[in-house]
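Field log, afternoon session.

UNIT: design team B
ACTIVITY: writing a sequence onto a fixed backbone
BACKBONE:
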């Protein structure tokens, strides 16, 4: 047998198993079941909606108080015949403006949370955080009422006593509001 024929024969013997394997049908693979697509957690959705409803209600109350404070404050400031009344009016306008800004930021934060698909634990933590903030604010509100009472009791003139009455009034509302939200928020 010529030498080159021997090389071809050897090459054929080496490649025969690979060629035979390539022509053999592939073994059938068992289908692997895919996990069912996960939808939103109904409990998390319910918690999100309850959280948003509670916080929206809080911002609505705060906005209403802000508008009422600014309106009555402006009227007292403009038409008050004495320093005491005008000073109460100024306090109402100032506190109402601050409450309005706070409510605006609150609404903005709620708008960002509306579409969030977070787990139940996230919404439980948000509720806990909100309760804590309201209760800390209630503690600060006690300081406002106390400061207002001290201004009324020890103020040297009607302007200071009127400012104290305005601070005490605003602090009293905020104490009731923050306490109700802190204890009543889910």
């Amino acid at each position: 047998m010529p030498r080159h024929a021997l090389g071809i024969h050897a090459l054929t013997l080496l490649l025969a198993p690979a060629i035979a394997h390539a022509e053999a049908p592939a073994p059938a693979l068992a289908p692997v079941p895919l996990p069912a697509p996960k939808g939103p957690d109904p409990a998390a959705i319910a918690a999100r909606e309850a959280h948003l409803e509670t916080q929206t209600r809080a911002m609505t109350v705060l906005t209403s108080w802000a508008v009422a404070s600014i309106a009555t404050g402006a009227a007292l400031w403009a038409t008050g015949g004495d320093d005491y009344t005008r000073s109460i009016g100024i306090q109402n306008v100032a506190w109402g403006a601050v409450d309005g800004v706070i409510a605006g930021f609150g609404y903005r934060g709620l708008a960002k949370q509306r579409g969030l698909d977070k787990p139940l634990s996230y919404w439980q933590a948000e509720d806990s955080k909100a309760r804590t903030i309201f209760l800390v604010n209630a503690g600060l509100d006690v300081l406002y009422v106390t400061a207002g009472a001290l201004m009324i009791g020890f103020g040297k003139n009607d302007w200071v006593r009127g400012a104290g009455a305005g601070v005490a009034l605003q602090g009293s509302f905020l104490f009731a509001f923050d306490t109700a939200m802190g204890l009543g928020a889910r």
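LOG NOTE: The chain is about 80% helix and 0% strand.
NEXT ACTIVITY: expression trials, pending approval
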